Amino acid sequence: MAKSEGSQKEQSPMGLRQKIQKSSSRGKNYVMDLRIHSPASLGYLGIEGIDTAPAMVRLAKVKGLDVIAVTDFYSGGFIDRVAEAAKGSSLTVIPGTVIRATLPVCNDVTLLCLFPEESGGALIEQFLTSIGMPQGSFGNPTYVVQRDFHAIMKNVEELNGVIIPSRMDKTPHQMGAIPALVDDFGFRAFDLAYPDSAAFFKQRWPKIKFQLFSFSNANALAQVGSRIAKVKMKEAGFAGLREIMARDEMNG
Predict the structure, then answer these.
(1) What is the pTM of this model?
(2) Structural domain boundaries enclosing 163
């Protein structure tokens, strides 16, 4: 059967290129869990006879994760093992650590600190030393850093890292620090203990666009990916994360 004239049109190379560029600018969805502990954290629930690093990578892939972050309390000791286990796979491993700091309104501000993929465990150790972390307290989740909050932010950002306040909705005392973190320091990305806490942000700052996550805080293999975020980013890996998690430089 003859086709009517103009029923099918070839797309010009220019039109196709514009379509591809437009699609690329919209970004791609990535599934991630950015708060995962390892045997480097005190209190981690390991399984005897299981090699944790490759098991963590396998489980992350089974659960459909594109990006994970190894974020032990005050330690980078396990990051390189997980990164090595993920080599050759589609899984991106982000180096990180969790620290606890203070503000005048709250003496327990939990911060998720993430760094570029190439950083490795050595850079995490360098960062911890730079904020005055005593070697004997590495891995200890109860330790609270007494360094000035602005200085901590500067230390992270000088290493091209980003900070996400984590689980600050867990107690009323910690919740009281969120206004300072938003208004004084410009944070726009938060890891929430309770997803319903997103309503607090929407009600108090209706005109601000936040990135609100709720990661697993896994302390055992089985918990990896138990809570995830699906995030649209223009770039894969840490470069994309840094763009969507950047602080508002007009504040802080």
Answers:
(1) 0.87
(2) 28-245
